[in-house]
């Protein structure tokens, strides 16, 4: 994904979170709804899509996207709105139908997960290194209150070391975390 498309996606995701339905908890407090249930998430996406589809034609234009952002006090330039639509417009009509809208949200979710994994990976590597070594794993585990020998760390790494080089690359780490 090109870097110039990540800004509209990030703003877009933040916007969608603002629109996500809020629920009251048992104490009557309003809580942001964070459901792991696929049906609820799809229902939430439908509600966001319906809100953004101002003319109710079943498609979101760049203009509707931009106006939706403004409604909630967010700014989205013409270029950003057009880039966000273009990013997921698979049928080439210049608008987002519900399926394309859903793909845009999913792409942003995947990008967020990758960023979080990269941040976690950085915690396990020593400065100047690009991989998790038995030594760097041992140091991190000690910081977490778990004392392990270097040999123990070698065994842990070997379980996910796909190329048998004795260290974990980011891709191997990501596989381990899934």
From TrEMBL:
Source species, domain of life: Eukaryota
Task: Decide whether keyword Calcium is in the record.
Answer: yes
**Is the keyword Repeat assigned to this protein?**
yes
UniProt keywords (A-Z) are: Calcium, Metal-binding, Repeat
Note down the stretches annotated as region Disordered: 1-48
What InterPro entries would the database entry show? Centrin_CML-like (IPR050145), EF_Hand_1_Ca_BS (IPR018247), EF_hand_dom (IPR002048)
| UniProt feature, compositional bias: Polar residues | 1-12
Q: Which GO terms describe its molecular function?
A: calcium ion binding
EF-hand domain location, by residue? 40-75, 76-111, 148-178
* Database matches in SMART domains: EFh (SM00054)
| Role, per record | Potential calcium sensor that binds calcium in vitro.
Q: What is this protein called?
A: EF-hand domain
Upper taxonomic lineage: Eukaryota, Viridiplantae, Streptophyta, Embryophyta, Tracheophyta
